[in-house]
Amino acid sequence: MDTIATLRAAYIAGDTTPTEVVQKTLDTIKEKDGEIHAFLAVYEDALKEAEAATTAYKEKGADTPALLGIPVAIKNNILVKGRKATAASKILENYTAVYDATIIEKLKAVGAIIVGATNLDEFAMGGSTENSAFGPTKNPVDTARVPGGSSGGSAAAVAMGAVPVAIGTDTGGSIRQPASYCGLVGFKPTYGAVSRYGLMAMGSSLDQAGPLTNTVADAELVHETMAGLDKMDATTITDDTYPAVPAKETYTFGVPRNFLKEGVDASVLEAFEAHTKELETAGHKVVDIDLPLFEKGLAAYYIVMPAEVSSNLARYDGIRYGLSEDGDELLDVYELSRAKGFGPEVKRRILLGTHVLSSGYYDAYYGKAELARKKMRQELDEVFKKVDIILTPTAPTPAFKFGEQEDPIAMYKQDIFTVPVNLTGVPALTFPMGTVEQDGKQLPVGVQYIGPHGGDARLFAVGKTMYDERA
Description:
Layout: H1 4-13, H2 18-36, E1 39-42, H3 46-60, E2 71-75, H4 102-109, E3 113-118, H5 152-159, E4 165-170, H6 176-182, E5 185-188, E6 208-213, H7 216-226, E7 252-256, H8 266-281, E8 285-289, H9 297-312, H10 330-341, H11 344-357, H12 362-383, E9 389-393, H13 408-412, H14 419-424, E10 428-438, E11 441-450, H15 456-468
Parallel strand pairs: 2-3, 2-4, 7-8, 7-9
Antiparallel strand pairs: 1-3, 4-6, 5-6, 5-10, 9-11, 10-11
Helix pairs in contact: 2-3, 7-15, 9-11, 9-12
């Protein structure tokens, strides 16, 4: 298992070179991706960058940028200049990005080598990567099962050993849930910590970009590289936006027990309880808490998110971007292009969002969901006066088999522990808490640490002690 830290040390010591590692990445993709389908595009010209990085290490050694020569995969709803940006949708199949997203500029500035674009649920709408217009991605742990979603391609790219880090986006758990299914570390930052400029908007008040990696330390390094104020995104925050959240020697973890009573697989609960014991053994305190509004987040999320989807995707009309179908009148162009270009799940969410925003229903649905969101934030503020971190499983089950969750409502329930985090804007970290056996397979399951606003560094600090130092 390669990590950024091990590769960087090997580059500096001269034990390997970026050229060798990027060639190995391309070879691994050729060997495995025919079955896994983690990538929508592979950039063979990354070898030229690797050769330049190899020369730089020979000349400057440790005096080189922190990610120089590290191969990175990028979810294909993030703009990389000169590369196709499809969002896994037919409507953008031939669209080429004309600028770099801010996070891509930052990754390139410290020498990261982008080796390919990863698959996703169309426009990041889904929890299994079955909704890609270009075919599903398989879970490298068990190819009969989904990798999670919507950042399933990014998770699979790391899990199959092609890259040590991939970038995903998280609107309702789309980094954390696939990280849990594939046995990885995943991080969703405090809302505003990372610029959204150059990310294809799904839910603008919910979206954040973050890393999927093999260690918490790698996730921290990549997050810190991408984070920061951006004049191109007015929602980005500074270090002073929220009160300081200090790191401690030991923490009080709060477990919302009522949240775990229904719908959680017994094997996941068993692994979760074992993790609480590990925390207590490590000197931390684990207490029960009540989060009655937080537990209702799924209902509010599936009003707020589709409402923002219906607004954000209105721009894909057959005129300005991508696919365009001829029609007798302008309205025909709109209707024919959107009908042909969007898949079923995208259409479902646009219809739902348009309904909740329509005259006569706005106050009844969207207005109440936004009020519930405000109350959830207030509830969290009170809880974080009593505990330092909230603890839940990342997902209620391990990775499920293809076709097992055909009912959209059942699929949405896979996000029950992750969507409240996006609604309230707090940060959350997931890492493996063990494996559970299903059908003779050992499947990874993740634990989720939720911090207060601005508590990103606290989550990394405790995550490194509870995962990296024990793995």
